[in-house]
Design brief:
three-stranded parallel β-sheet; 10 helices; Arc Repressor Mutant, subunit A; globular
């Protein structure tokens, strides 16, 4: 079956290092977030807020998802993430319940964890099959340097929310820890992080770093050697999810990659250019662009406030398609 519909909320399925084949559902407007993280590959937050809203109608999201499901191959997770912080959607709990009513595919929630200190937020995600929150700092000062939170969010509130989630949620919690060069990659910060992790007790600790660049020019990837040292220091159930150390569980869509490549060969393009030109969701475009970047086929260039993607000079056509 062919699917020629254009979707506003649903994208993929796309290959994910953590989740296998993941069908994304984007439920908040682009860059609407509680944080303005220095490492965010989507750029700076344009709407920083703590106010939960019914950004999009729940039934509209579910109807679009139900329309998409017959056209997708076997998928491991339906993932609520996308262009901003999904827990800001006031109908998140109803969205999860609605997904459960129309499919048996597991539901994962990717969240920065900033609002978990609110009981209604924790309650809204209790029916998820997997929750992946974040913790990037070990104290208030570092928290503000890296995550640049909304003024209503303190470090202690955020950590309290993670602890309460662990107490109340019976399913698996995989905690992502983003290591930022020159800020959180030193022994003092790592010691504080490790102390907090002992209390949270996630089922997995997943270390990440800025292999794809960030919102700020100074953010660079921490080396694989240093990441491995950090992994060993943190210890049990800790893994590295950056640096391409894991292969995708599903092959990338070769035609989609070629489509993207053909566009950026003609002229540098933004993510919005690619999404519009190929009539795909921007988050799907991001996934494929990142895969091409990791294979050194395309590169990112900053132009004023925009990020443009172009073919690398050293690229050779015969190396493009995976065999």
């Amino acid at each position: 079956m062919n699917d020629t519909n254009t979707y506003q909320y649903v994208f993929g399925p796309v290959p994910s290092r953590r989740l296998g084949s993941s069908l994304g559902v984007d439920i908040v407007p682009f860059k609407t977030c509680t944080y303005d993280c220095v490492y965010c590959q989507l750029g700076r937050t344009t709407r920083k807020t703590c106010k939960r809203q019914m950004f999009y109608p729940v039934q509209e999201i579910l109807t679009e998802l139900e329309k998409k499901l017959p056209y997708i191959p076997e998928t491991d997770y339906i993932t609520l993430s996308g262009s901003g912080e999904p827990t800001l959607h006031e109908g998140l709990g109803d969205i999860i319940d609605g997904i459960k009513n129309i499919t048996d595919i597991k539901v994962a929630v990717l969240t920065n964890g900033s609002l978990l200190w609110q009981q209604e937020v924790r309650r809204s995600i209790m029916d998820a099959d997997l929750i992946i929150p974040s913790l990037d700092a070990g104290n208030e000062v570092t928290f503000h340097r890296i995550n640049r939170p909304h003024p209503d969010i303190t470090f202690n509130k955020m950590v309290k929310g993670l602890l309460l989630l662990r107490d109340e949620f019976s399913g698996p919690i995989w905690l992502e820890v983003f290591i930022v060069n020159t800020i959180s990659d030193n022994k003092q910060q790592l010691r504080k992080l490790k102390d907090i992790l002992k209390h949270i007790k996630p089922d997995r600790i997943q270390l990440n770093t800025a292999v794809r660049g960030g919102a700020e020019y100074f953010v660079e990837a921490v080396s694989m050697e240093e990441m491995e040292e950090i992994r060993q220091y943190i210890g049990h159930d800790c893994e590295i999810i950056s640096h391409g150390n894991k292969t995708y569980d599903q092959p990338l869509h070769e035609t989609r990659q070629e489509d993207i490549l053909n566009l950026v060969k003609r002229r540098p393009c933004t993510i919005d250019d690619l999404a519009s030109g190929l009539k795909i969701h921007r988050n799907e475009a991001i996934k494929y662009v990142n895969a091409l970047k990791e294979r050194n086929i395309i590169t990112a260039k900053r132009s004023e406030k925009r990020i443009l993607y172009a073919v690398r000079d050293t690229y050779r056509k015969e190396t493009f398609i995976r065999r």
